[in-house]
Design goal:
Layout: H1 8-55, H2 62-82, H3 85-93, H4 99-117, H5 138-162, H6 168-184, H7 191-224, H8 229-255, H9 265-290, H10 298-341, H11 352-380, H12 386-406, H13 412-441, H14 450-455, H15 461-493
Length: 494
């Protein structure tokens, strides 16, 4: 006999209660999800400090070194979240790599670059921005480097949160400058070096944009708008990939292999030229076979540029890991050296365990927070395809080579983002020019209104203003933060 208490309405009540519970669990999962990445990052930072504690147990200034290692890990995580997006964003935006594939390639090559070729000799004050002799003692110097490292990491964290790709190198430079001024006054700063860095804010993105636009113009004129696109691609794609191979070879020799072998500019350029010619000759039959059966349209051309673009992203990541990780953990290495030996005026080598914190921190930050900036760089500034993204990657390598020749300190972030803007603005100009030509051929063609012209813009101006503002204030913002942090440390220490 059925129990009268279990009427259908009781089941309805139970269903409603269970539904509320399931909604509560879903809401809890939704709230907890944004906290998962910061929690994992905090766990990594804590582990980095414990790792340092194990290695420096019982040494002088062990507690300071452990704290510095945690701050260095925090900086490395922020580099992975912000800086690496510039290498992977174009390939993801062009739909050549998935987000997972881009992160996987970046993790492998960033780590390889940092551990194999990174950590050449770095001065204790981030490349001569501040004279170490101007600080009163080793303790003051260590406090200044702590402030510089933390303020640089904090600024990059803020920039990532607002969605602005900034130069982590410039953030470190600003942090060191601010701490140096707070510790020893304005006379401690090498203002000629700072002037060169300020000039690079303008020169590097403009140069990167012009070179990227120049290659895109060449591709449009010689391949895309030719009657037989495939035949044109068979001629010019091997040449362009050969230029890319030569440029990246010279780039890696100059910026990524300092620790393995010393190469001067002329030798690097000569090696790049020989490698470029070899790749060009090797690719002629490869592209001929790859293009067989392809239709005479732009979609077919994208296939020919996809694999070179993946290689370019990997090369950029390797060089970035080799070059920029040293700038990120340079202040940490200076602190370790000053605490262990008391010498804070001479150049130092970055210990391998410090490089490990930098390498793994970059990879961890990219995995946890990188997708946001990768999407912004790859998708939200202007629309990219494999040809345009290829031009951006190629311009990054060539611009660094030119800057090295001119002796200019440049940022890979500024160059890559400048290349994306260059490609977008060139597309606007090129589309307008073709419209003018069409109107000349067909005088009765309707004229677009100003609002219609605004809708045809191919670059998002809002992102341009946000990024430009972040670039301009990076050094002063990091410097101000560093000065405040330094005085806070001095107050606590006293």
């Amino acid at each position: 006999m059925a129990d009268k208490n279990f009427e259908p309405r009781h089941f309805e009540t139970l269903d409603r209660d269970l539904d509320r519970i399931s909604k509560l669990e879903a809401a809890n999962a939704f709230v907890a999800r944004p906290m998962a990445a910061p929690a994992l990052a905090a766990a990594f930072i804590l582990l980095a400090g414990l790792f340092a504690a194990f290695l420096v147990d019982g040494s002088n200034g062990a507690l300071v070194t452990v704290l510095a290692a945690a701050i260095g890990a925090y900086m490395a995580v922020n580099i992975g979240a912000n800086d690496v997006a510039n290498n992977m964003g174009p390939a993801v935006g062009a739909n050549v790599l998935t987000m997972g594939g881009a992160i996987g390639i970046a993790i492998v090559f960033e780590s390889a670059g940092a551990l194999i070729a990174g950590g050449d000799v770095v001065s204790t004050v981030a490349k001569g921005i501040v004279s170490p002799e101007s600080t009163a003692s080793a303790d003051v110097f260590v406090q200044a480097m702590m402030a510089a490292l933390f303020s640089a990491a904090l600024w990059v964290n803020i920039a990532t949160w607002v969605g602005a790709p900034v130069s982590t190198t410039h953030s470190v430079v600003g942090g060191v400058m601010g701490a140096g001024i707070a510790a020893a006054g304005f006379g401690a700063v090498n203002w000629s070096t700072m002037s060169a860095i300020a000039a690079s804010w303008v020169i590097s993105p403009v140069l990167g944009g012009v070179i990227a636009a120049g290659f895109l113009w060449f591709i449009k004129e010689r391949i895309i708008y030719q009657p037989d696109k495939i035949a044109a691609a068979r001629t010019w794609v091997p040449v362009l990939v050969g230029i890319m191979a030569g440029a990246f070879s010279a780039y890696l020799a100059l910026k990524g292999l300092k620790k393995i072998i010393k190469i001067d500019f002329g030798t690097a350029l000569g090696a790049g030229l020989l490698i470029g010619i070899a790749v060009w000759l090797l690719l002629i039959p490869v592209i001929r076979n790859q293009s067989k059966g392809l239709e005479n349209r732009n979609r077919s051309l994208k296939k020919l540029f996809s694999i070179p673009l993946i290689f370019s992203a990997a090369f950029l990541s390797f060089a970035h890991g080799a070059n920029d990780v040293a700038n990120a953990v340079g202040p940490l290495a200076a602190i370790v050296s000053a605490n262990s030996s008391g010498d804070f005026t001479s150049a130092i080598n970055i210990p391998f365990w410090v490089m490990m914190i930098g390498a793994f921190g970059i990879s961890f930050g990219l995995f946890l927070f990188g997708p946001k900036l990768i999407r912004m760089v790859g998708n939200e500034i202007t629309r990219l395809n494999p040809m345009r993204a290829f031009c951006v990657a190629l311009s990054a390598a060539i611009t660094v080579i030119i800057a090295s020749w001119l002796g200019l300190p440049v940022s890979s972030t500024h160059i890559a983002v400048g290349g994306i803007f260059g490609v977008g603005f060139f597309r606007e100009w090129y589309a307008e020019r073709r419209l003018v030509r069409a109107r000349q051929m067909v005088p009765d063609r309707p004229v677009h209104t100003p609002s219609e012209r605004r809708q045809r813009k191919l670059v998002r101006r809002a992102h341009m203003m946000t990024i430009a503002a972040a670039w301009i204030i990076t050094v002063p913002a990091a410097a101000i933060l560093s000065g405040v942090v330094f005085f806070s440390i001095r107050l606590v220490a006293s």
